[in-house]
Write a structure and sequence with these properties.
Structural class: alpha/beta
Largest sheet: 7 strands, mixed
Strand content: 15-25%
Number of domains: 2
Distance between the termini: 37 Å
CATH superfamily of the largest domain: Type I PLP-dependent aspartate aminotransferase-like (Major domain)
CATH class of the largest domain: Alpha Beta
Helix content: 40-55%
Order of helices and strands: HEHHEHHEEHEHEHEEHHHEEHHEEEH
CATH architecture of the largest domain: 3-Layer(aba) Sandwich
């Protein structure tokens, strides 16, 4: 933060730059590609390329690294879900492809367990398809999923998470879909660590969608991988071709190069070393505030998360005089602007994955000042 030019490109427009301790959230700008990724993107600027060829070759590169048949780079995971939904409705039929979003006469239903209902499942409906929810918030049986499949069903959809909770297991859902000769589309957006878990997810269904921001590819990238004949149809729905449903979901040549470079780095990174580096940042942050009465810090490690860990800063709200949301709001209003998450009324949650070098010290200093000022103010009025 010694750099006085920090955030000037935003300040000149009247927008406030942010120290982001919340992780790869789209509302904060998503990701920060590594220097090697930015350099590869810069090299891509030097010449033009046939985009169809680049999309084909980049897909093959990703597929080889993940042990799947084929892949296709998209404008984020959401776009991947939209294109896969279009794919399962039309197959490799040019007339049906041109017909979308009119789905008259097409199999246009995608079966989805209600217990997995989430904010972005709307993506499955964008090309004109319809989500058919099965089961309830308490779960879904194999029999219910099987019975929900009918003559209008185009595919089964699934949300992959480390803890599937009350949902029918993925392998069982795939088995049921295949018993009806239907594909299964999986949203595995951020499920990319540990690396064997990443590959396992990529290989788990007929079409599997991921977001590039989670492994530090350009924010607006993602990809879908899976069965070759289905990926070939995904390509025809992409942004190149006659009347493609995905015309508005363009990906730059620079972004494609950035994504393949980022995934190559991710799959060869020493994540143990990365975890240790994050822990060192949490240790520095802890040292900056651990001497404040009523404040304690604890690192929470996550076995299946690309962010690896986060730091919980717990404090006595009665002693401080403000709860976690109020503290977070004050940090948001401060200079520099600091964004972090909260858990309950007495815990602040920080993620080192999206912090730039040295920003942990800035956060510690801001927290110490805020906590001590609150304690003094409360003591004065008492």
């Amino acid at each position: 933060m010694a750099n006085t030019d920090w955030g000037n490109v935003y300040k000149q427009l009247g927008a406030r730059p942010v120290i982001n301790a919340t992780g790869n959230q789209t509302v904060r700008g998503g990701s920060t590609p590594a220097a090697a990724v930015r350099e590869a993107m810069h090299q891509a600027d030097a010449s033009y390329v046939e985009m169809e060829e680049l999309l084909e070759k980049s897909g093959q590169f990703i597929a080889e690294r993940l042990g799947v048949e084929d892949a296709y780079v998209t404008a984020g995971c959401y776009a991947a879900l939209v294109l896969t939904a279009a794919t399962v409705m039309t197959g490799n039929d040019a007339d049906k492809r041109a017909q979308l979003p009119d789905t008259t006469g097409l199999r246009n239903e995608i079966v989805f367990q209600k217990t997995q209902h989430y904010t972005y499942d709307r993506a499955f409906t964008i090309p004109g398809s319809k989500l058919v929810f099965v089961g309830d918030e308490e779960g879904c049986t194999a029999e219910a999923l099987n019975d929900a499949i009918g003559e209008k069903t185009a595919a089964v959809a699934y949300l992959i998470q480390p803890d599937q909770g009350k949902a029918l297991p993925l392998a069982e859902a795939v088995k049921i879909a295949h018993s009806h000769n239907l594909p299964l589309i999986a949203d595995a957006a951020s499920q990319i660590y540990p690396l064997d878990y990443f590959r396992q997810n990529a290989q788990s269904a007929d079409l599997v969608c991921f977001g590039g921001k989670y492994f530090n590819a350009p924010h607006s990238t993602g990809f879908v991988c899976g069965r070759k004949e289905l990926i070939q149809t995904v390509r025809t729905h992409g942004f190149i071709g006659p009347r493609p449903v995905g015309r508005g979901m363009k990906v730059d040549r620079q972004e494609i190069i950035g994504l393949v470079t980022a995934i190559d780095i991710w799959l060869s990174t020493d994540h143990g070393k990365r975890s240790a580096e994050q822990d060192a940042r949490y240790a520095a942050l802890t040292r900056g505030i651990e001497n404040i009465p009523g404040v304690s810090c604890e690192v929470h490690h996550q076995k299946m998360s690309h962010t690896l860990s986060n730091l919980h800063v717990t404090f006595d709200a009665a002693r401080i005089g403000k709860d976690a949301a109020q503290i977070a709001n004050e940090l948001d209003a401060s200079t520099p602007r600091i964004k972090l998450n909260t858990h309950g009324k007495e815990t602040l949650v920080m993620n080192a994955y999206t912090l730039n070098e040295g920003e942990e010290h800035v956060i510690a200093k801001a927290l110490q000042k805020l906590f001590r000022n609150q304690i003094r103010t409360k003591a004065h009025f008492n």
